[in-house]
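Model it.
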Amino acid sequence: METEKPLYSGSKGLVLAVDDDAVGRILLDRNLRDLLPVHSAASGQEALDFLATHNDVALILLDYRMPGMNGLEVVKQVKENPATADIPIIMLTSVDDAKLETEALNSGVSDFLRKPFIPAVMRRRVQNILNYAYLRKNLTAEVKLQTRRAEEERAATERLFEEMILALAQAIDAKDPYTHGHSQRVAEYSAQIAKEMGDSPQAVKLIYYMGLLHDVGKIGIPVEIINKPSKLTDEEYATIKSHTVIGAEVLKPIKERPELAIGAHYHHERYDGKGYPEGLAGEEIPREARIIAVADAYDAMTSRRSYRAGLPTEKVYNEIKRCNGIQFDPQFAEVMLKMMEKDLRGYR
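Modeled.
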């Protein structure tokens, strides 16, 4: 019992049954008509004439012994014609001759069936040939279709991921009304620095995500400490500093993107080794964190805070320049300075 849906089902086309024996043609029609429509031809020439005016033949069932033109001669003409060369052919014959079978297969015949055939076997072989022909014809298109679908699904997943972490970043920033949009700005500045450094689009996107999540650890810091307008006590400052470790722990369960925790954990390290939480120095600090550190400091200085207004661009420029090689990695500080120079040209 045939339960598997053929690959070619639903595709247009017909079977051309070529046999000088009327009974043979009837048998082929009866056994195949539910698979594809069957057109019968009583001779090789009649088959070639039909092929010359029809481009919907999916398969040829071809008898070997026929008057006027035998099956091999028909095969030769079919395969020599570019318009019909790709049509699969199954040869039918009562001749038990290995040499003939070899010659037929070498000439381009796809399969070989002996008469009298068993209908179920013949049907299965026809289905196999039709499936193979369908795959061969549609493989390129199918690969393109599946690739496009996979890319669309990947892009949709990436958009959802970005929207989720952006929402998370906005929720964290909302704890402090004076830092609204801070995480997104840091992410954008970080991505721009990475782009200016010649990083790949994938690397730029990754550091953008790291920037969005760099302050995620503040989820564990009391609001009253974050929003305190006066100077923090040593204990309060220690609590604030713990957001780097908390952030790394929050992001640790994301197994598919373990690198996301890098920015959260190390963005307060200093190039001179006097930062926190690990006191790393120079290139001991992960590259992405060194980039985010510059972007974070720039936005912190230019943004309005509860205890002061945002600093003017020129003052921020001078501060980053002063801390170049001390707090910041020189190469990334230089990129940020060049980006800022575009804003300073108007009055410097």
